[in-house]
Design a protein that fits this description.
This protein is mainly alpha-helical and 514 residues long. It is built from 18 helices and seven strands. Bound molecules: protoporphyrin IX containing FE. Heme binds at residue 417.
């Protein structure tokens, strides 16, 4: 059994040759898995659109085309809605309480999923559109006053918007406690879940029984759990206190606490993780917006084209608003291209088979795209026009993959990202306002005048591919635009009032004045 444990089961998808016992462990990439996976998969056609890797007795199946995602993840979603077991994840969040990482699509997951989907539904989104617009205007004002910290202003935007909708409290500054603590806790949480950070306990579960004094990783995991619980526990407590004082402001978590028994969510730790997953999920929007900034800076011609469209549709007398978005086809194409060029979640999140399935003659045992030259003309070239020529950005005259859909970036099946509407609208309104008001340029060496281009190949590896902080020059297109933003901000602050009541009590910057 040990000898055969590294070999593929008959009928499994093909893949690189295995060696006895360890399978493909010796060639399994440690970082930027997507690059090696596309080399083995669709681009080179070495092993085809669906291939497998063996890690001891575990089978990892890589889906490298929209068709294979549709056939497996979408059409067989009942058999592949689980997540693979992760001992580290269970140690940080036990009992499957985190909707995203929770292993089984069981009753707890269903209640969490239903409640989250309701909060994040397109219909419910209309309740928050004013708040999102006001936060996007603050983002522009922050960029005007402190352009060097552009990277962190984006984090403030997404975190503040997420805590507003879930907990009914916003963060006017990057160093407001909720944003500052999130930026401290979340990277450690993501890092803990990444392959290679800690010893491979999932492959060698026996490591779990090594006493803590010889296993420093156990201490590190405990620390992350404590940080996680302290942060999300504090946010939940703030809502509970507000309700006790009869000062509710209609936040989502207030409704959930009030109706917890009916919703099947009357466990405090489950409630804490329900809030956590929405805040964590929304952080991918920061990565997408940071990537958009780099794409603007490195593609001046596309930026000019986008600004011409904005000038024509919006003019120079007011900031872009949500109603403008439907009249901005180039803006949408630009964002699609940013997401294709450097997808935020290059591997999505893994799914696990709970039943054997056979797809196109290949066995998917239980347990176990965007740069494809067949479909994309010059996939390494940044070219938003491809999405104007064709809604999926694919080559003209080529028989497209039948499984292609416009939200592939957001996963599929029963686990598909519930935050699509919120993510898309944040990307669109922030890009519209930022590109309307500013020139986004690469940094410059002040002595030589040489441009310092951001590195588009130096993104974080792991669950999300986030650009690293870097210098950009963010220059107002005209002083008049900044006046307009300042004016719009003064009008927009009315939307913030219900969510700022607790800021004074904490002795932090209570007024959102720059
Ligand atoms: C550009 C932004 C975003 C991208 C690219 C993205 C992508 C994804 C992907 C690929 C998954 C896994 C789907 C699967 O397993 O097939 C996912 C899950 C999830 N996302 Fe997003 N997401 C984004 C924004 C958001 C936002 C704004 C929220 C919340 C406000 C959110 C909440 C979630 C949650 C809760 C899950 C777990 C769903 C489950 O396992 O049932 N995401 N997202």
């Amino acid at each position: 059994w040990v000898w055969r444990s590294g070999s593929r089961t008959r009928g499994s998808p093909p893949g690189p040759p295995t060696v006895p016992v360890i399978g493909n462990l010796h060639i399994f990439p440690k970082r930027h898995l997507q690059i090696k996976f596309s080399e083995w998969g669709s681009s080179s056609k070495q092993y085809g659109d669906i291939f497998s890797l063996k890690i001891f007795d575990q089978t990892v199946i890589v889906l490298n085309s929209p068709y294979s995602v549709r056939e497996v993840i979408d059409k067989r979603s009942l058999s592949c809605s689980n997540r693979p077991k992760s001992i580290i994840s269970d140690m940080i969040i036990p009992r499957g309480m985190n909707l995203g990482s929770g292993r089984f699509a069981n009753e707890t997951w269903k209640s969490l999923r239903k409640t989250t989907a309701q909060l994040l539904s397109p219909e419910n989104f209309n309740k928050f559109i004013g708040c999102q617009h006001s936060e996007a205007i603050q983002l522009a004002l922050d960029l005007a006053h402190d352009p060097e910290a552009w990277y962190f202003h984006i984090h403030r935007f997404t975190t503040s918007f997420a805590t507003t909708i879930v907990y009914g409290r916003r963060s006017p500054r990057v160093n407001s406690p909720d944003v500052a603590e999130f930026l401290h806790v979340h990277p450690q949480f993501l890092c803990a879940l990444d392959i290679g950070t800690f010893p491979p306990v999932d492959i060698f579960p026996v490591l779990r029984f090594v006493p803590e004094r010889w296993a420093p990783w156990k201490r590190a995991v405990k620390d992350i759990r404590m940080l996680h619980n302290a942060f999300y526990g504090r946010l939940l407590r703030a809502v509970e206190d507000r309700l006790k004082q009869g000062k509710g402001n209609g936040a989502f978590m207030e409704e959930i606490i009030t109706d917890a028994v009916n919703l099947g969510l009357n466990d405090r730790e489950v409630l804490m993780n329900l809030g956590a997953v929405v805040i964590q999920g929304s952080d991918t929007t920061s990565a997408a917006l940071q990537n958009i900034m780099l794409c603007l800076a490195t593609n001046p011609d596309c930026q000019t084209k986008l600004q011409e469209e904005l000038d024509q549709v919006v003019g120079g007398e007011r900031v872009p608003n949500a109603d403008d978005l439907q009249h901005l086809p180039y803006l949408k194409a630009f964002i699609e291209e940013c997401n294709r060029f450097r997808p935020v979640g290059p591997l999505g999140l893994p799914h696990e088979m709970s039943d054997d399935e056979v797809v196109d003659g290949l066995l998917f045992e239980k347990d176990g795209m965007f740069h494809d030259e067949r479909y994309f003309d010059q996939p390494e070239k940044f070219d938003p026009d491809r999405f104007l020529r064709n809604k999926f950005g694919v080559k003209e005259g080529v028989q497209d993959d039948p499984g292609r859909r416009s939200n592939l970036l957001f996963g599929g099946g029963r686990r598909v990202c519930p935050g699509i509407t919120f993510a898309r609208s944040s990307m669109e309104i922030c890009t519209a306002i930022t590109a309307w008001a500013f020139q986004i340029l690469p940094a410059m060496n002040t002595t030589t005048g040489e441009l310092i281009l951001p590195n588009l190949d130096d993104y974080t590896h792991g669950i999300t591919a986030t650009p690293k902080p870097c210098k950009l020059r963010i220059i107002p297109r005209s002083p008049q635009y900044i006046d307009i933003i300042q004016r719009s901000f003064s009008e927009a602050t009315a939307n913030f009032v219900p969510y700022e009541a607790e800021l004074d009590q904490e002795g932090i910057n209570s007024k959102c004045q720059i």
